[in-house]
Amino acid sequence: MKQAYLVLEDGTVFEGESFGAEGETIGEVVFTTGMVGYQEELTDPAFSGMIVMRTYPLTGNYGVNSEDNESDKTSVRGLIIKEAALCPNNFRSEGTIEDYLVKNNIIAITGIDTRALTRKLRDEGAMNGMITTDSNFDFEKRKDEIKAYEISADMKEYSTKEIDTKGNGTYKVAVLDIGTKHSLIENLIAHDMTVTVYPADASAEEILKRSPDGIVISDGTGNPKDYEGILDTVKELLTSKLPMMGVGMGHLLMAKASGASLLKMKFGHRGANQPVKDLASGRTYITTQNHGYVVDKDSVPTDVMEISHININDESVEGLRFLNQKAYTMAFSPDAARGVHTTEYMVSRLTEMMGGNK
Questions:
Q1: Residues 235-241: contacts with CB within 8 Å, 24+ apart?
Q2: What is the pTM of this model?
């Protein structure tokens, strides 16, 4: 295999082997802790602009297929893994992870000490980096470019281009698509909903004129400050008093639109094993997450909403319940359609709220 290099903004270099497309790519280097789900991660819009490192040491052992994509295109800037499985064994497999990376022009590196990199990111925080297959790269010439890189939220790139209706359920739900995953739409349909997906630039008036029974603000990528235009739409949708659910970035936007402040996390929550406690029931759930920003718990306006879920590891805000209307949010995914189903009650809650309107 051809040599490849991961170069961090502080000058740290990890040498490994090229895996996937050749060339170079710059992005924010983050880590994800899931054992499985690599294809979902590669196509999750919330990973846009990021070079993703998988802490689980083996990637590709069950291959790839045409069903597990979370969007219609790959979103990561690059991939870092310890070891690649070149001969997958699974009845659903349609190809190898290597072929998938080449086909989708994703630059990857394998064979580096991912534990050392994880420790570095945990201690020092997420940082920018570059993967390159050029053995003659000059860090001094590229360090300013690497350090200056910023993720920008290109909502229109991952949002639906036109209004699209899916399913045939009892309840009509409007989804403001700022980077939603296929599994969320499938989950809503499975809970007796007819889902109408709206482009990111849709107005509140456009959404409300179709008289939905409920509204969902989807997940998205980048910095919440890039969503100022959509923030006004979210505020207006909240004033409708219709049942509302916010997921991921939607959770952050609904919180900010209601008076809370947001903070950038040191290294974020990414993976399929984040422990979250439901404060109402006292039960802890293992959740799938992908976010680098969090609601400042000290800024939550207690006359508008209350904290409903917290992360067991760092006690950060994972969910909010609005006090004067049927609305709630979650920083975690309400279970991928192909994953575990322990937190599907979060979607069932929306069905119950809309049923109260009938």
A1: 236/204, 236/205, 237/176, 237/204, 237/207, 237/208, 238/325, 238/327, 240/204, 240/208, 240/215, 241/325, 241/326
A2: 0.94
**CA distances to 239, 248, 258, 266, 338 from 300, in Å:** 18, 17, 9, 20, 33
| Domain definitions of the chain by residue range | 3-148, 155-355
Residue 3 and residue 135 in contact, taking contact as beta carbons nearer than 8 Å: yes
The token pair that represents 194 in the structure block:
């007819």
Instruction: Return all residues near 209 (Cβ < 8 A) that are at least 6 apart.
Output: none
Domain 155-355 sits in CATH at 3.40.50.880
Residue pLDDT, tens place only, 294-348: 999 999 999 999 999 999 999 999 999 999 999 999 999 986 545 556 788 999 9
* 348 residue type, one letter: S
Crossing angle of helices 249-257 and 228-239, in 10° steps, is 70
What are the pLDDT digits (tens) for 50-73?
999 999 999 999 999 999 999 999
Q: Are strands 193-198 and 171-176 parallel, antiparallel or unpaired?
A: parallel
**CATH number for region 3-148:** 3.50.30.20
Q: Are 282 and 251 in contact (CB under 8 A)?
A: no
